[in-house]
Automatic annotation (TrEMBL):
Gene Ontology MF terms in the entry: protein serine/threonine kinase activity
Domain of life: Bacteria
InterPro entries: Kinase-like_dom_sf
Organism encoding this protein: Metabacillus litoralis
Upper lineage: Bacteria, Bacillati, Bacillota, Bacilli, Bacillales
Keywords in alphabetical order: Kinase, Serine/threonine-protein kinase, Transferase
Protein name per UniProt: Serine/threonine protein kinase
């Protein structure tokens, strides 16, 4: 272990991450004044150490630690691509990644921040690059894409070694092309974002067009 990460290892040992059923976000117990939680997922939480702000430490739940080496292998195959964070090290409980500044596309919609078309193009290019590396670009959604200086950074590669197409990005791309102009610049309420996400996760719609027609019936979109 590199000397500069020894203190972080000690601080992380005071924090426990617990997974939850039904693909819910993890629960965090313990804390440290020197660590800032900057992200929470279904397998892990991500922390930043105040004295090493260029790094992010992805700490996994005890029952998800088998995924650490798998994710590290994905990063190795991506070969430090500019579309993704860099992985510097993998340990028993966590990954050491580059800290990536920016705002997620999910938060862009919450705050009414414009999402330029360049972001969509960047994600398309990133996906094509992933395929060329013989990986599978799955699980690309609003919370896994950062708006970073007008460009896109994809921040979670944990499912790229899994088979199958979850169609998440294809649906987002189609939604952007066909409907984004209706909401561009509008701050969408949190409750509405969560409602739409819940509807989508139920996957009871015949097509993404049918789904969007139902969403656009909500009065918010016609104010």
């Amino acid at each position: 272990m590199e000397e500069k990460w020894v203190i972080v290892d000690k601080l992380l040992s005071e924090i426990k991450i617990m997974s939850n059923p039904n693909n819910k976000p993890v629960t965090i117990t313990g804390s440290s004044n020197d660590l800032r939680c900057i992200g929470i997922g279904t397998d892990a939480a991500v922390f930043q150490y105040i004295d090493l702000p260029d790094y992010a430490f992805k700490l996994f739940a005890d029952d998800k630690q088998d995924k650490i080496q798998l994710e590290a292998k994905v990063y190795d195959q991506l070969k430090k691509s500019p579309y993704f964070p860099t992985c510097f090290a993998a340990y028993d409980r966590y990954l050491v990644l580059s800290f990536e500044s920016g705002i997620t596309l999910y938060d862009c919609l919450l705050q009414g921040v414009h999402i330029p078309y360049q972001v969509i193009k960047d994600v398309e290019d990133a996906r094509n690059y992933v395929v060329k590396q013989k990986l599978n670009p799955r699980d690309i959604h609003l919370k896994n894409i950062l708006l970073q200086n007008g460009r896109a950074k994809v921040i979670d590669v944990s499912e790229y070694c899994k088979p199958g197409d979850d169609h998440r990005w294809e649906h987002l791309r189609k939604g952007y092309d066909a409907y984004y102009e209706k909401i561009d610049g509008k701050a969408i309420p949190f409750w509405l974002m969560e409602t739409v996400q819940r509807w989508y996760n139920q996957r009871s719609f015949a097509s993404i067009d049918e789904f969007m027609k139902d969403v656009l019936k909500l009065k918010f979109f016609w104010k």
